[in-house]
Protein: M20/M25/M40 family metallo-hydrolase
Organism: Bacillus seohaeanensis
Amino acid sequence: MNLEKQHIHNYVWNRKNEYLKQLFVLLRQQSISAQNIGIHECAELLKDLMKDLGITTRLIETNGHPVVYGETIKDENSFTLLIYGHYDVQPPDPLEAWQSDPFEPTIRDERIYCRGAGDNKGQLMAQLLGLKTFLDHHDDLPINIKFVFEGEEEVGSVNLSNFVEENKELLKADLVYTADGSSHNSGSPLLLLGARGMLSFELIAKGADWDNHSGNTGNILPNPVWKLVDLLQTMRDKNGKVLIKGFYDNVLQMSEKDKELLKKLPFDAKDIGEKIGYKSLNMEGEDYYRKLTMEPTFNICGIQSGYAGEGTKTIIPSKATVKIDARLVVDQDPMDVFNKIRQHIHNHDPEIKVNYLGSMIPSRTQAGLDTVRCVTNAVHKAFGQEPLIQPSLAGSLPDYVWTKILKTPSIIMPYANFDQRNHSPNENIKIENFLNGITCTYHVIHALGEFSQSSTNNLNKEKSV
């Protein structure tokens, strides 16, 4: 460990209690976007926290919850990093499954338990405190840094694309850096160069106007559950292949670089199986990562109909609903896929109603970019080991607003532990992960400053020739 790295590491850990105290202030403030609980209060609190760090900050209203925007501008012509995160959280339900109050940060076994601890307030604060740590050691920032913290990520970032579209000049940057998601199950640092998109919809099948006796009307009335079962069997085969015409048309084939990156990712089926609650997991690493990041999915979230309580209730249900989400990969267009699904359903059974629920466009940044190499080296220095690079996040983030709308490369660096239980009871972040996130942010800023200076020097040399 070199002297600078050792010093920054010690500096951050010596201030552990101070940094935890600042994080706890933010964690205690509820900000449940789905229920509009505490959102504006949290946005104001975050704005004040950022101002205390010397960041010029303001709230920008949207058609939904406000964006907390901040900036520290060194020079309009300098390299600009845009840091993204979100201050909203999931509802804490079911409350009875929590071992402690979901909005009172509690430390157990060197983990901070609280809603938002990992997703995303802990990671957001690690970025802000990383900037503070840098300013504690240097007179000024070597680059411009802009911050966009939204309050609607947990409800699909419904207004973020319009916000970015309307504020392109304000948000202009050379790189977007996001600390969100879970680190690799091996514990190794992980860089993600994109995210799968998503399409959500529901299918509703109708029978009679009300539930009927299954004997008195059996063989007479149509059963809407069977209508959905028959339809679903035409949409996906037993091996998981989607049978909808044109579904795979625009899936970008894996490059040799993608294959190389996936081969480097460590894989332990037993360990992963235990951590996700499926000990029967049995597949090879390459197959696992390919399916997880480079292929689309077609998933049934839930089916609702009839009676499923104790005992029996012999009825023919009047209505059946199934909710489906499809994770999409580049270059699939969610609306194109939705239209193909709708056409398939119409051809099979035009009486089944299709409702669009939401979507997100997939995103990808090229691994060979100089800025990607720069951040990779910074993370390597921060953690003392070479980070794993994954072409895409398995889940979905609104990464496309940066790569598609802002036309800016984007890197996602998860600071939270793999088993953070985000969206579940007992959400947590390891104290070690939180503090390491602070030191990592410091090194990313430092490396991008050196990269910016080197690029400027090279440009000046070219001009003088």
About this structure: Residues 250 and 331 are 5 Å apart (CA to CA). Residues 459-465 have pLDDT under 50 and may be disordered. The domain at 197-251+295-360 is CATH 3.30.70.360 (Alpha-Beta Plaits).
